[in-house]
Write a structure and sequence with these properties.
The chain is of the alpha/beta class. About 45% of the residues lie in helices and about 15% in strands. The chain has two domains: about 30 residues; about 200 residues, TIM Barrel. The strands form two sheets. Strands 1, 2, 3, 6, 7 and 8 form a six-stranded parallel sheet that branches. A two-stranded parallel sheet has the order 4-5.
């Protein structure tokens, strides 16, 4: 009797563990579609999309814009609303150079853990800030940390936002060298190519905890990727894939 009770308890515990793991996968894994459809990358292995999160950064975003201009490449910037409000001239410079701007929430919380009211406020406030500055609609949204649940995606779509995740990222925010970042990103880009997919690449020009974070390694990695793949692949903005 006792052994059967223990056995049932172990089975129940295992089931709970699997359920928790499944929820975590659905909420955080960037390529998961369990909680709803998101844009990752199409079946076009010859395309790359450079995307930058957590800016704008008053020091490193302008340097990045100069590099992108040098290679005549457009990118996508998912900006934090409260930083965008402090850097409106820089937001206009990003858009004026032909880059796409997306909503990355107002304060970069984990939206999978937020109330619906908080999610709506984070997205709505950022939308209002960006659209007032730009004078045009913003149509792209990337959830901070990639964290979402069905309600997160529903609220985004109610506001006319297309949720965008990724399939090529490293921990560039903590890397000490551009070489380390490039080595790992190149492996992910080739993996995606072998699967017949484009690469939706994430780098960080800002920091959600520190708006003026040192992003020298990330910016150096972006230039190395541009230099290596220029002429070999086509660079696009993620909105081209909608």
């Amino acid at each position: 009797m006792i052994s059967s009770v223990i056995h049932e308890a172990l089975l129940a515990g295992s089931a709970l563990g699997l359920a928790a793991g499944g929820c975590s996968y659905a909420a955080l894994w960037p390529e998961s579609q369990i909680y709803g459809r998101t844009l990752v990358a199409p079946a076009n292995p010859d395309e790359l999309a450079l995307t930058f999160d957590d800016g704008p950064n008053p020091e490193w975003t302008p340097r990045l814009l100069d590099i992108l201009a040098k290679y005549n490449v457009r990118a996508t910037f998912f900006v934090v609303g409260r930083y965008a409000a402090r850097q409106r001239i820089l937001i206009l410079r990003i858009a004026g150079a032909g880059h796409a701007i997306g909503n990355h929430s107002w304060s970069h919380p984990n939206l999978a853990l937020c109330s619906y009211r908080r999610i709506r406020e984070e997205l709505t406030r950022t939308q209002a800030e960006l659209e007032q500055t730009l004078g045009t609609a913003v149509r792209l949204f990337r959830p901070p940390f990639g964290a979402r649940r069905p309600g997160t995606l529903q609220i985004a779509r109610e506001q006319g936002l297309a949720p965008v995740l990724w399939n090529a990222m490293t921990s560039d925010w903590s890397a000490r060298s551009a070489e380390w970042i490039v080595h790992r990103l190149a492996a992910r880009i080739e993996r995606n190519r072998s699967r017949g997919c484009a690469s939706n690449i994430v780098l960080h020009d800002g920091g959600h905890l520190e708006p003026e974070a040192d992003r020298s390694a990330s910016v150096g990695a972006a230039e190395a990727i541009l230099r290596h793949f220029a002429g070999l692949r086509r660079f696009v903005v993620v909105g081209d894939w909608l």
